[in-house]
Protein: Olfactory receptor 14J1
Amino acid sequence: ITLTIMAYDRYVAICKPLHYGTLLGSRACVHMAAAAWGTGFLHSLLHMTSTFSLPLCQGNVLNQFFCEIPQFLKLSCSDSYFREVGLIVITVCLAFGCFVFIVVSYVQIFRAVLRISSEHGRHKAFSTCVPHLVVVSLFISTGITGMFAYLKPQSISSPFLDVVVSVLYSVVPPALNPLIYSMRNRELKDALWKLI
Structure:
């Protein structure tokens, strides 16, 4: 949701710069933040209530460094297939809606940027979008990796691979976000080039 809101921010900044203050005023920002937090809270509440209502019959020890839902479902004695499918459908619908909104926003942004006559103006407009596009690409690629890892057959499952995938999609994107967004800072770029 947050990446979708950021795409809308880029869209307004580039396609409707004169209306930026009215479209993204303090009230709109509060509503968007509340929507992101509320959606995240409701989505996690849905997962939590579904997961913790399952009876456990294989102990309570997970082979992970945090309590992850697919690993937790392996400990359940009940048939949790329909719960998993329901949660996956809700998550996919939410993610797909956000993805479509981001794609439509960037199509409009690229159309507006390509109409800018000066090359300096086009470069400046594109440079405001690059960090967000990199973060969205990173988030989508690690999410797809996680999805394929958890939808694979149990016969080819390995605890090491499960831990690696968990680290990949839960630690790598948040750790790289500050670096990606700060790469627009000239001093940081210069320091990085000197380090390399």
About this structure: The chain has two domains: 1-115, 118-195. Residues 81-114 form the longest helix (34 residues). The CA atoms of residues 11 and 108 lie 7 Å apart. The chain has nine helices and no strands.
